[in-house]
Each structure stands twice: as C-alpha cells, then as structure tokens.
Amino acid sequence: MAKYSNPKIRQLLYESDTAPNSDVKGDKLEELVKYLFDKISGVSFHKKNVLDGVRAQELDVVFLNDKRVSDLHFLDFVIITECKNTTDRLGSIGVRWFVDKLRDRGLPNGILISLSGITGVADGVSNAHSEVINAVIRDGVSVLVLTRPEIVNLETTNELVALLQDKILSLTIERTIT
Mind listing the pLDDT tens digit for each residue in 64-93? Predict the structure, then answer.
C-alpha cells in the first residue's frame, strides 16, 4: 500500500479546474490520473493521448497491469482511462464513445474519470447511467466511473483499489453505478 499526498491531489485538481484552455485542463487531469494509478502495485504508466492507427480514436491515459503482482489483478492487462473535467456531467454520447473505444480493442473494462459525474440516476434507467448498464449487457464491457468526491480525499492506494472493486461488484451484480 502506498500513500497519496492529498495536497498534491487537490493541487492538480485546482490546476485542472483553473487551466486557461481545455488542452491544459485535460493535461492536468491526466497528470493526476497518472499519479494515482502509477502508485498502485503492479500498475505502470504506458502512454497518454494515444491515437489509433487510423487516428479516429484517442486514448487519454493507458496503463499496463501486471496481474501477477498487481493490486488491480481483477482488471485486464491493459487499463484505459478516459479523463473528463467539464462543468456539466458527462452525457450518454460521451459514455458511449468510451464504451466504443474499449469494445473496439476487445477490452472488458475501463475507467472513466468524470469529475462532474455522469447524467442520469444510479439505478441505471436513464441517460448516461443507462449507457454504462447497457454496455455490460450489450457489449460485455464494464465502465468504472470515478468522480471528484471519490478522488479528492483518497489517502492510500488501498482505498482506490477498494473503490474500484466496489464499483465493479455493484455494476456486475446489482447493475447499479456507485
């Protein structure tokens, strides 16, 4: 278990929030995501802003997950994260676009960091929440959504691992987004 610097988390969130344009805003959030996941045992940063061969899809931050020693052994070898710091909650189209990126790569799961959350309600019957539930049913893809309130007070990697475990359990067993 590694410890996080809460002042660093808050500083990177602040820098993302107050960035002069969307590119810098995204870079700061990606820096935060890299900081959080790089500290997890068995997980290592691979690349950011990765374009596919036809330059149609960009992956925000990609990690390699050595499942033999990883605390995230329940996730796939490749972990793709999508990073969104918008004023409004992310809608159905944004969630579906991320699901398509995962599906197109044959990945069973990915992590969506949407600081403002996603539209709809947690029971999965409306808006972007329904896209997350439908992705499990229709595509066999689990999208684990992380929000600002969940990130801002993280103190250890164990807390982030437990949060992701809870999310995958809720999504697959109860068909709800927590």
Answer: 999 999 999 999 999 999 999 999 999 999
